[in-house]
Amino acid sequence: MYTSTREVARTIDHSLLGPTMIIDELEQGCRLAIDYGVASVCIMPHYLKRCAELLAGSDVKASTTIGFPHGGHTTAIKRAEAQQALADGCQELDMVVNVGRVLSDDWDYVTAEIKAVIQITHDAGQKVKVIFENCYLEERHKIRLCEICSELNADWVKTSTGYGSQGATFADVQLMVENTPPQVEVKAAGGIRDLDTLLKFLELGVTRVGASRTQELLDEFKTRL
Prior knowledge:
The chain is of the alpha/beta class. It has 10 helices and 8 strands. Strand 3 (61-66), helix 4 and strand 4 (92-96) form a beta-alpha-beta unit.
């Protein structure tokens, strides 16, 4: 399916979200992303503006997180985070749903919040990935979130933050692909540490993967070729 390292690289969002990452690591991570030609760098908000400056002129997009990692921020704060991110040059926003509201079946709240962030972002001509944090949800929650995101024209639905009790699973990805239309893509994130796992997710229909071991994964793919 994938015949070049470049093709695989274009499915990866290079993750720079570790809470202890220092500035030198963030700088090096952005430069690595450019060297390998990945899809985007997903970086902590405080370094997003610099990230966007470093990526300017490349094909790599600047992305960041909203309501990360637990999703419990108020809608007003998520809106403000989105506005700040867009002002700082963000092109793709990875937003965490309010998990507690999902588990409470408070679907009006959940829908309104996702809609608010999507509207701000789409009005600015940029894109949104909606993170479910599937490890805490039942199947019916995941399906309903897929329906809501489809109705609201989210650009991606995403499995996990990578900071929950479990990351992406093949079963969750299959469920999400089956319950979203083609225009709503699926991103797998969390625990993708080897090339075979990454390739299996792509085979299942994922178009983006979140990875922190980008260099290792792409070097191995190049070696296999």
